[in-house]
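COURSE: Structural Biology Practicum
ASSIGNMENT: Worksheet 4, Part C
STUDENT ID: 0417
INSTRUCTIONS: Below are two proteins. For each, the amino acid sequence is given first, followed by its structure token string. Answer the questions at the end about the second protein only.

PROTEIN I
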Amino acid sequence: MQTEALGIMSEYYGSATDMQEDEYILTELGKKDGITANIAKGTVTYKNKEYTLSEITGGTEEKQTLEKNNLEEITLANAEKGSAEEALLKEQSVRAVITEKEDKMNKAVIPTGFYYVTGTPSTGLVISDKMGDDDSNSKKGNQFVWIPCSGTNGITYEKTDDNGTGNHGLASYWEEYKSKQWYYTTVPSGYTNAGQAITGWSDNGGNYASVTKYGGFYIGRYEAGVPRDADFYADSEGATYYKEEKKNSEEVLSMRPIVQKGTQSWNYISQEKAKKVSENMYKASTSVTSGLVDSYAWDTAVKWMASDSKYSGIGMDSKNYGNYLDNTTITANTLYALHRYANRNATGVANNKNDYWTVATKYKKANITSGRVTLGTSIRDQYEFALNSYDDTNYNYYIYKELATGAADETKVKNIYDMAGNMWEWTTETGNHTTANGSSGTTFAVLRGGGFGNYGSDGPVSIRHGNGSATGFSIDIGFRPVLYIR
């Protein structure tokens, strides 16, 4: 059976099928005599014994990595009868349970259709939806990191069982980092009903039931990226860079983002559309639900990072862990910025407020550092900004650089990349105001994590910024999906 499975796997990569890899292999195996396939469960039965797909194919790399990290994979084939693990594995949504050999209380649940990549439940266990994927994401699977909310090294899930009210005021993590937040309390000028009070900052996201049942949840390893089949995707030398006219159009509502290494973050997208496309990722899945990251998941992930003494101060100052103005540690020649932005700052013209951003029109690889670089006369020819002229007497010109997703290991904390810096990231937390006639007014949505134009002390990973409309978009705003097991 193993030989047949490996042969089918080879056929898959040469086929034009729209099926996921595991679904294709299981479907074809199920056509063989004596083999019964359970596609929803991700298993096959042969001679009255049930096997997971990784067991059939040998899962050589996966098994070697598990052994190297001193982990044990529990499946229905080897689960102890009557154990909690066996009970979970009998559900269609669970493929395996990974435990640490030295402390079996530390565990992660692997949903059906996903595969172990690297890490441990205590240090950042990574899964992918592509079989055989690795730490470098060579198979281009979407990767997620387990946030343990149980076990010896787990962190308490921020949201309590509040009967669905989503009252963020109950959250202890919110209280701890409340000095790092900015909220509109009244509708600002420029919006209808300016001056009216904004009330009800809340988040009805999260999934207390799933986290409690499975002991944790998954967060995107990388910032959400532009889908590779989109006509506005650009990661090749000389590719045209597109802005909001395509990235935030109505056409994107049927698209699915990618969570993969070395691609362009999906910026210029509103919170409303980021929420929708995040939900699209695994809409047909029977094992997980995907969505835009909620405040409870974000805060819990931050506290889990900070629980490690190495990162204990990250919630208050993330300078060394993100693409910020004041981080100059990201200097490796292998890094590159997918997009560069030039900003013009007035120096000697007191009444001139015509400062502006312009975007490099073409993608171009180059050695970079993080932070801001002065666009001096000696390097201007290296960039393709649409500046008609330079007025060095009255203005300074700077370059701000956006990193590709997961481009810099300096931004990795417990196997999660770029939660601090690079892009501000939309969440499901919102605030609303009510107009004089009682109708709903503008919805404002919360951004987290800081961006490439911020400082790591002012805009750390814990920051909560509620000063943007849910329909707005910008060059430095992206998003990140989260997964809950069904």
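PROTEIN II
(use this one for the questions)
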Amino acid sequence: MLHMSEMRLYDDAGNRLYLNADERAAFLGAARQRPARDRTLCETLHFTGCRPSELIEITPARVDLSGGTLAIRSLKKRKNGAGEAKVVFRTVPVPPDYLDTLNTAHGIREAQKSPKRAGEPIWPISRVHVWRIVKGVMIEAGIPDAPQRTTKGLRHGYGINATVKGIPLHLLQKWLGHAQLSTTTIYADAVGKEERDIASRMWG
């Protein structure tokens, strides 16, 4: 049985558990045809690799429009020196165009001027609702009904993409909120195949 702390990028039958570059691009394209709330929700998952449970906690106060980052609370339990659970925030850099869209769609800058609004979730919905939205966009994007068509597949796709693009593993560890660097190294192990998939386009 797979231990809860272990992560895999392939299932027992060798099927991918992450979205590849083409699927990520198709997902983003389909998301941008959706209403603003759904579009920004999907773009946030795409550009940060956060978990749905983390996404629905993001508030305007955690958006740094000038610094170009989102502050995300890591919801996986961590222990401090006394063995107690501790709260850990991570800052994840995001593209300027995405932040412009987020600000326009949700009035982030205005919301930040009000303590009450600044602390309210941008997407006040459940994790199940997030999954329904993501699944609908993935179907519209033509992503096949296969093991990678999940929110976890989107998160793993972020990790693979970052590694292929040369992001150092210690930074990726921080952005994904992994407690151990050893967890993040699974993306480096998978890059060989992903790079071959990309290189094969030159041979066709």
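ANSWER KEY EXCERPT:
Q1: The longest strand covers residues 69-79.
Q2: The mean pLDDT is 90.
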